[in-house]
Amino acid sequence: MQEPAYLDPRSGATFPLDEPRWCGPEGQPLLLTDLPGLGRGQIDRAKGSLWRYAAALPFRPEAPITLGEGCTPLLPGEWNGAPLRFKCEWFMPSGSFKDRGASVMLSLLRAQGVRHVLEDSSGNGGAAIATYAAAGGMRARILVPDSTSPAKTVQSRALGAEIELVPGSRQDCADAALAQARDIFYASHNWHPFFLHGTKTLAYELWEDLGFRAPDNVIIPCGAGSNVLGCALGFGELLRAGEIDRLPRLFAAQPAHCGPIARAFLGLPEAAPRPTIAEGTAIAQPIRLPENLAALRDSGGGAVLLEEEEIIEATRGLARRGLYVEPTCAQAAAAFGRLLEAGTIGRGETTVVVLTGSGLKATRRHAELLGLSL
Amino acid sequence: MQEPAYLDPRSGATFPLDEPRWCGPEGQPLLLTDLPGLGRGQIDRAKGSLWRYAAALPFRPEAPITLGEGCTPLLPGEWNGAPLRFKCEWFMPSGSFKDRGASVMLSLLRAQGVRHVLEDSSGNGGAAIATYAAAGGMRARILVPDSTSPAKTVQSRALGAEIELVPGSRQDCADAALAQARDIFYASHNWHPFFLHGTKTLAYELWEDLGFRAPDNVIIPCGAGSNVLGCALGFGELLRAGEIDRLPRLFAAQPAHCGPIARAFLGLPEAAPRPTIAEGTAIAQPIRLPENLAALRDSGGGAVLLEEEEIIEATRGLARRGLYVEPTCAQAAAAFGRLLEAGTIGRGETTVVVLTGSGLKATRRHAELLGLSL
After folding, report:
1. Distance to chain B for A369, nearest Cα, Å
2. How far apart are CA B193 and CA B371, in angstroms?
3. Which pLDDT value is given to residue A169?
4. How far apart are the C-alpha atoms of A314 and A329, rounded to whole Å?
5. pLDDT the model gives residue B106
6. Of A128, A159, A186, which closes a domain?
7. B75, A67: Cβ pair inside 8 Å?
8. Which of A48, A324, A345, B297 has the smallest C-beta neighbourhood within 10 Å, fewest atoms?
9. pLDDT computed for residue B1 by the predictor
10. For residues A143 and A180, is the Cβ–Cβ distance under 8 A?
11. Is B146 exposed, middle or buried (0-12, 13-18, 19+ CB in 10 A)?
């Protein structure tokens, strides 16, 4: 297999990996060229973190920035009378699955000499970058819309990130980040392909959790799609490495109020985004939309659009099982119910529902659902 | 070894284990008689949770209530230039170490037929009981002082616990719980000895983390002392089982503003409690004070009283390392600095600092430290 390189998946152009870069020369989003993945004999079993799969990364940093991320529980459960598995991705340093991507991305970037990073996110992405920048002795600047409630940035600020309030919308904030990216390395969880090579460890972990088998289905709360693409990468590598004999079907769960990937997959016209309780997945313009569609299609999977009431009901259903999570990720459970009812998923199949973030990140939302004012 | 029984450690009286009971006939706090512990060959390595140590419990429930608690990271780090290990106990279902105790206690109680439990805690204890009651299909009633901010009970309420606001002080609330304990089984994290047999799995885990060695020192944020007593139980069992050849020294870290266990250990007179940022350890009247003192003494360890400024500085120091935790548990790191400076702990020793709760549980405190108003 060739040396790993950055790849523009739309033109096929490649760029050498050894110089830090987060986009192509015309600002296009990049992936990496296909990597060989790893076989079960290459797992570093002494490591109780995602770094046990370091052999699957594009290169191995001498000193990974690690806080014990990964190796999260896969719990058996039931939903609407059918068995499923909950992958509990909030057992993480910063409380969400984004720590996988942040640990790998910042470890690789630091090994390439990057010391100061830029990010734009008031949510889980920003908190994860702030966490690993702190752990790695790197500086982080995080841009957030000036309308962001102070509570949302406490975690990143406490971790030492510099928070810059940008007047205007979320899009203005993203534009400001692009402008500042000339001066500070833009370690965006949405843009940098190293991030996806962190999230892909979810696939490796599910494979190991299940005794070196792929599940039949993985249902993923989907905003920009980093877990969809991460699973596609990871399971794709395992397939090419001969470790599994077929891909699991990947299903993206998105809010009906803001679900551009699901809408495109389902052949629905574009729609103006509306506010949703599933705020972590409210990404109106995902930069890797075509790659997400390809990942869902290639896996034989699909997409589900969920109404607010369904998301709320699923949030409550999870809490009744002791699973206190962000409403955002309850979409995956709600989608399981729908897919089961439609007969798309069978009761005898092995289905994983990915629960991406702690309910402690959504105290205000949970209070609203309880009718409490804080 | 005799059949396990409840034990009044102050009188030596025992009571049969097979009927649910949370205190002695005169309302005295109980422990269990000595258990044999387990050897390394008895670890159930297929389980990625504290239930791998189920052989060390007083009895094995057929269906444990488990959400993947335990098996938390033990991270190498440094503090004031000396090496230490951080045990990251917030990688847990409800975000704190209390899940160890709750999972074991409610599993054992449910196996004994208990279906409805009473607790009094607006903090981590209440959240953990609410979590495992939900997971186990049990009802939970949690009493909290009516002055408790609504934000503190959102998690327990969302998980389906019944929250009862009790007029008056924290003590009034404890008194109300004792009164209600005639009607509902009082599954108090402070009172029930099964809880300690959950927290003792921390000791087993540290032993396994370190390649079946005990650390030299364990520094523990201490309120009522469930982790101090849990470590004393677990390491004591390992010593009796011949798996370790000496106990680690246990050190209790308490706030100077409310540190009755440390004051008693250090021979200081009692003092009226004052408010502290370390609210999780602000227990003015720990019911197992003599047992805590004995545990510290028998291990050759000690106690440290920390000023508010030291706790704040340690909270910041941990955040600078990417460890976003409750200020309460930063006391353990601050105490490490003190013990190092005093020469009580040497640089070459293996010292574990236990970090008990997620910073996401203390957003308001962190905001205060940042000078942010929410």
Report:
1. 8
2. 41
3. 83
4. 9
5. 98
6. A186
7. yes
8. B297
9. 55
10. yes
11. exposed
